[in-house]
Sequence to fold (250 residues):
Amino acid sequence: MVRNFKMVVSYDGTRYFGWEHQQETELTIQGRLETVLTRMVERPPEQPVTVIGAGRTDAGVHARAMTCNVLLDTEMSEEEIQLYMNRYLPEDISVNDVKVCADRFHSRFKARGKTYRYTCWYGSSKPVFDRRYVHVLDRAPDLEKMRDAAEYLTGMHDYRSFCGNSKMKKSTVRVVDVIRIEESGSYIRFYFHGNGFLQHMVRIMVGTLLQVGLGDIEPEQMAEIIEGKDRALAGPTAPAKGLCLMKVDY
Fold:
C-alpha cells in the first residue's frame, strides 16, 4: 500500500554538498535519505524513491528540523520506518519524526514559512567545540546598529540585491517578517523568519548586517541597497557553517 509519509530530519551539513540530490555524488542529504529508503522498500537502485524537501539548503548548511515527504509502498509502521532509517543513516543525519500524512501533502508547496538561525562568535578564546557551527569574527560588531539596519530589511521587498543567483528569472519579492539579533556571552545569533528565501539570501543579509555592525556601512544605506536591486551593492556572503534551518511552518 502506497502512503505519503511526512518526516522531520536534522543534520550536520558540514561534509555534504547541500540537500539536493546530485548525480555526480551521493554526498547530499537527499541522496543519503533516498539510498536508505530505496533499500528499505527493496527497490532496485536504478529506481530509487524520491524524497521531497521543504527547501534546498546549500553545501555546509545545517538543519535542526527540515521537513520532507516521500511516497512509500510499505506495510512498515511509522515507528519501524524511523528506527530503520536511523539505524542505517550516518551519524550526522537523524530522522526525528515520521507520520503518515494526506496524499496531497507536499513539503515544499505547502510550506508557509521558515525560520533560519545564523550564529557568530566573538571572544578572546576559540569556540573549539562549536567551530563547525559558528562564524568567528575578528572584532565585536555594534548590535544596535545592526538592529537598526535590520528594520529596513524587514517587510515585503524585492530582495534581488540579496540573491546569490544572478540568473534568477522568477520573482525575487519575499516577505521577511522577523529579523532578531540576540547576544549571549560570546555568541551573536541572527534569527530570520519569512515566507521564503532566495539562494544565499540569509547569508548575504548576515554579511551585510555585519558590515553595518563593524562600521563599514551605515544602517540607512539598507534602503539604497534594497532599491538598487543589484547584488554588488550588498555585503559579502557569510560562511555556510553558521547557518541552520530551525523550523518549517505549515
The two ends are 26 Å apart (CA to CA). The CA atoms of residues 225 and 233 lie 6 Å apart. The chain has two domains: 2-101, 113-249.
